[in-house]
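Morning!

This is the sequence you dropped in the shared folder:
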Amino acid sequence: MTDYFKDDARTQQERMLAGDLYIANDPALARASRDAIRMAAEYSRIWPAHPDTAARILRRLLGSVGEGTEIRAPLYVDYGRNITIGARTFINYNLTALDVVPITIGDDVQIGPNVQLLTPTHPLDPQQRRDKLEAGKPIGIGDNVWLGGGVIVLPGVTIGENTVVGAGAIVSKDLPANVVAMGKPAKIRRGLLRQTILPPRR
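The structure's back. Tokens below.
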């Protein structure tokens, strides 16, 4: 196999976190991923019967979890530690968050069931894929975003605060704040208008 890293002294994990090409089946990374998968499976097994124990597992598994956040099981991750979630966020069943690089989820986010947050990328070069090279691009979900059920967010995407993404959409490019987007690929349909609350009639 070609020595892709002969002039690069970094570990495979360091390359991975930098978003550069790395060997996906590196033994150290494989151990870390298996540990995370076991923790996620344990979390899913005991939630919601033992919420306090489940919460402790979640804090060990993920990079950080804000106060008042609820994540319904099952949950699937690659490493877990590269995921940060803000406060008061609600994540429905069956989130798949492949975190070879950071996934950042803000405060007050609503994530529907069966959502996928996918940071890994693979080379177009067939030999590099055969040699198990991959890379990653981070995903950012802003505060108060709502992702409908079945949304897929692709590598490198950032979604601005308050934005709503309709069920089943595939988000392949950044979305700004304060819009509604839907479709495959997701396209902006309209902006979000501030609602005026009228005083009650006397």
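Headline: The first strand starts at residue 22 and ends at 23.

More detail when I'm at my desk.
O.
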